[in-house]
C-alpha cells in the first residue's frame, strides 16, 4: 500500500485540500494540518473531505493534536494521529447526553457544562449544529486565549457573555507580512551601511615630488663570455661586433711614363779590386752617374787586377784582362740619357766604368697610373670611411640593446687594388679597398643596473633612481681592449626622486584619518606637496581597501 504526505497550508480552502487528496498517487494519505486549521473546524468540510477520500478509494489520516479537530474527526469517522510516526485512530464521537440543556436553531446562547474542556464543548457544539441543519454553512470554531473560570471557586465571577459576540482569532497573515517587511528593512539598512562605509568611499592622492641629481662614477669591465651582470665586481655582458666593407674611390692618374727609345753605348769596365781574384759581372749590372743609370747587356768576367805598389796598373789592364769593354743600355727611355763620355760607378767598390758617347735616347711621355696615385687613394678612403664605419657599427650595437664603447673601434685595410693597374696608361682610375672593422658593446640593461646600484648606495629608502643618465654618460675605454673584453670608466649624473610605488603609498595610509595620511606622505624625502580628496561627500578618512585609493605622482610639478 503506497503512502503519501500532504502539507495543508493555513490559507487552503476545502476544495484545494480535496484536489490534493484526489490527485495524490498514494492509497493512504497523511494530511499534516497547521495550527488552528479553520477550514476543517467545520463538520461539513470534515465530512466533505472524508466522502471525497472514500470516493477516490483513499484513506486519509489527519496529523494534528488539536482537541477541537479530534472531536470533529471522530464524528466524521476520520483517522487522526499526533505525528507521522504515531499509530492513527478514529477519535471517540462526542456523547450527546442530557448535559446539553437546549439546542435551538434560533438560540444565540449555548448552555455549557463546566466539567467539560473547551475542545469537547466545541466538538459537541459543532455536531449539534450539524444535526440541526447541514444546509447552513458552519462557521469556524474560534478558540480564544482567555482562561476558563473555575466553577468551584467561590470568589470567581462568571463571565458575562455579550450577545452574538465571538472570540477573535489573531490575523497571522498580517503579522507574518509585518515580520518579513521588518526583516527586509533591516537587511536593507545593513547593506546600505556596508555600501556607504566600505564600497563607495574613494580617495584620490596627488603627490608632487622634487627630483635631485647626484654624481656617480665607477670602473667596469665588459666581457663577451659573461652571461649575466655581476654587480659586486662591476662586470657586464658584452659583444664584439665585427663587419666588413669594400669601398671604392675614383682618382685622376698623375704618373708619367716615357715610352721613347733607350740610349745605348759601350762602357770600359776596370777591376781594381786588390784581392788577387777575378770577378764576374752579370748582365744587368747597373752603372750610375748622378741620376743616370745604364745596365750591362751581357755577362762580363774580369781577371785579377795588377798593382804596382799601391797603384792599379790600368794601362796594361786590357792586355791582362782586368779591363774590358761591354755594351750598355739606359735603364729608362729618354733623351736625357744621351751623354758624352762619362765615368760611372757600381755598387761593388773597386769596379768602375768609363762610358763612351751614349746616344739613341728619345722622349715619348704618356700619363699612367702610378703606385703613388694608388696608395694616396687607399689612404683617402680609410680617412673618409672611418667615421661612417664607426657610426654604422655603433648603430648596429645600439639596435641590439648594447651601449657601444666607441673607443674600442678598430679598423684595418685588407685587400686593395687599382683599376687600371699601376703602370697602365690612363687619365682616371679607381682604387678599391676591403676594410675590416669591429667595436665592443656592453649590455644596456646591465650598465643601468650598475649605475642604479652605485646610486642606490647613496640615497634613502624612500627614494629611487628616476633616470640613470646613461644617455649622457661619459664612457671611456681604459687600456687596450681585446677581442673578448674591454675595461672602461663611467661618469654620469643620476636623477633621483620619490620611489613611485603607488601600491606602497596606498598601503601606508589605508584606514588613516586625513591628517595622519597627509603627515605620512609629506614625511617622505623628496615630496614637495600632497593633495588628498575623498568621495562621496560624507567620507572623511582614507578607505581601508587599497583598491579604492588612487595615487598619482607629479615630478617637479610637471
Write the layout of secondary structure elements.
Layout: E1 3-7, H1 14-23, E2 28-32, H2 43-55, E3 59-63, H3 67-76, E4 79-81, H4 118-132, H5 172-199, E5 202-209, E6 212-223, E7 235-252, E8 255-258, E9 262-271, E10 279-281, E11 286-289, E12 292-296, E13 300-302, E14 307-308, E15 311-312, H6 317-320, E16 323-333, E17 342-345, E18 351-355, E19 365-368, H7 371-399, E20 402-419, E21 428-443, H8 444-456, E22 463-467, E23 474-478, E24 485-498, H9 502-509, H10 514-522, E25 527-535, E26 549-555
Parallel strand pairs: 1-2, 2-3, 3-4, 5-26, 6-7
Antiparallel strand pairs: 5-25, 6-24, 7-21, 8-19, 9-16, 9-18, 10-13, 11-12, 12-16, 14-15, 17-18, 20-21, 22-24, 23-24
What can you tell me about this protein's structure?
It is built from ten helices and 26 strands. It is an alpha+beta fold. Among the domains are: 130 residues, no CATH class; 104 residues, Elongation Factor Tu (Ef-tu), domain 3, CATH 2.40.30. Strands 6, 7, 20, 21, 22, 23 and 24 form a seven-stranded mixed beta sheet that branches. It has a six-stranded antiparallel beta sheet with strand order 11-12-16-9-18-17. Helix 2 links the parallel strand 2 and strand 3. The protein is rod-shaped, with a radius of gyration of 66 Å.
Strand content: 25-35%
User: What is the 3D form?
Assistant: rod-shaped
Rg over C-alpha atoms, rounded to the nearest angstrom: 66 Å
How many strand units?
Answer: 26
N-to-C CA distance:
89 Å
> What structural class is derived from the secondary structure elements?
alpha+beta
Assembly category = single chain
Helix content bin: 10-25%
Amino acid at each position: 500500500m503506497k503512502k503519501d504526505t500532504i502539507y495543508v497550508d493555513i490559507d487552503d480552502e476545502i476544495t484545494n485540500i480535496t484536489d490534493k487528496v484526489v490527485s495524490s498517487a498514494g492509497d493512504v494519505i497523511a494530511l499534516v494540518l497547521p495550527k488552528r486549521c479553520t477550514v476543517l473546524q467545520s463538520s461539513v468540510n470534515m465530512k466533505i473531505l472524508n466522502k471525497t477520500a472514500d470516493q477516490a478509494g483513499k484513506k486519509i489520516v489527519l496529523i494534528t493534536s488539536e482537541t477541537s479537530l479530534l472531536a470533529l474527526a471522530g464524528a466524521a469517522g476520520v483517522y487522526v494521529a499526533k505525528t507521522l510516526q504515531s499509530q492513527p485512530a478514529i477519535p471517540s464521537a462526542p456523547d450527546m447526553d442530557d448535559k446539553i440543556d437546549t439546542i435551538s436553531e434560533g438560540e444565540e446562547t449555548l448552555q455549557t457544562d463546566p466539567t467539560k474542556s473547551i475542545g469537547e464543548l466545541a466538538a459537541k457544539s459543532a455536531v449539534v449544529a450539524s444535526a440541526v441543519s447541514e444546509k447552513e454553512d458552519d462557521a469556524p470554531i474560534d478558540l480564544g486565549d482567555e482562561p476558563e473560570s473555575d466553577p468551584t471557586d467561590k470568589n470567581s465571577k462568571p463571565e458575562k457573555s455579550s450577545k452574538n459576540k465571538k472570540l477573535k482569532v489573531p490575523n497571522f497573515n498580517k503579522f507574518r507580512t509585518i515580520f518579513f517587511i521588518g526583516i527586509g528593512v533591516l537587511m536593507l539598512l545593513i547593506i546600505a551601511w556596508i555600501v556607504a562605509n566600505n564600497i563607495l568611499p574613494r580617495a584620490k592622492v596627488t603627490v608632487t615630488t622634487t627630483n635631485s641629481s647626484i654624481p656617480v662614477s665607477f670602473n667596469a669591465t665588459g666581457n663577451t663570455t659573461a652571461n649575466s651582470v655581476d654587480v659586486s665586481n662591476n662586470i657586464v655582458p658584452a659583444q664584439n661586433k665585427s663587419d666588413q666593407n669594400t669601398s671604392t674611390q675614383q682618382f685622376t692618374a698623375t704618373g708619367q711614363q716615357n715610352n721613347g727609345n733607350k740610349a745605348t753605348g759601350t762602357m770600359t769596365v776596370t777591376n781594381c779590386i786588390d784581392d788577387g781574384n777575378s770577378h764576374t759581372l752579370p748582365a744587368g749590372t747597373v752603372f750610375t752617374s748622378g741620376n743616370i743609370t745604364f745596365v750591362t747587356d751581357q755577362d762580363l768576367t774580369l781577371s785579377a787586377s795588377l798593382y804596382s805598389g799601391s797603384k792599379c796598373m790600368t794601362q796594361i789592364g786590357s792586355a791582362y784582362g782586368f779591363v774590358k769593354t761591354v755594351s750598355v743600355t739606359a735603364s729608362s727611355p729618354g733623351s736625357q740619357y744621351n751623354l758624352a763620355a762619362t765615368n760611372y760607378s757600381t755598387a761593388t767598390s773597386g769596379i768602375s766604368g768609363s762610358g763612351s758617347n751614349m746616344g739613341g735616347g728619345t722622349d715619348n711621355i704618356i700619363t699612367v697610373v702610378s703606385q703613388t696615385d694608388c696608395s694616396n687613394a687607399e689612404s683617402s678612403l680609410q680617412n673618409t670611411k672611418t667615421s661612417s664605419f664607426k657610426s654604422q657599427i655603433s648603430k648596429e650595437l645600439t639596435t641590439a640593446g648594447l651601449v657601444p664603447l666607441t673607443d674600442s673601434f678598430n679598423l684595418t685595410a685588407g685587400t686593395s687594388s687599382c683599376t687600371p693597374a699601376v703602370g697602365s696608361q690612363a687619365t682616371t682610375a679607381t682604387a678599391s679597398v676591403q676594410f675590416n672593422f669591429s667595436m665592443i658593446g656592453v649590455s644596456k640593461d646591465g650598465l643601468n643596473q650598475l649605475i642604479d646600484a652605485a646610486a642606490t648606495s647613496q640615497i634613502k629608502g624612500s627614494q629611487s633612481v628616476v633616470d640613470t643618465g646613461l644617455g649622457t654618460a661619459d664612457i671611456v675605454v681604459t687600456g687596450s681592449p681585446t677581442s673578448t673584453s674591454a675595461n672602461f670608466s663611467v661618469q654620469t649624473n643620476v636623477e633621483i626622486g620619490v620611489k613611485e610605488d603607488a601600491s606602497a603609498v596606498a598601503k601606508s595610509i589605508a584606514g588613516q584619518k586625513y591628517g595622519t595620511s597627509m603627515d605620512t606622505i609629506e614625511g617622505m624625502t623628496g615630496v614637495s606637496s600632497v593633495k588628498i580628496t575623498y568621495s562621496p561627500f560624507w567620507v572623511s578618512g582614507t578607505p581601508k581597501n587599497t583598491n579604492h585609493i588612487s595615487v598619482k605622482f607629479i615630478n617637479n610639478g610637471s
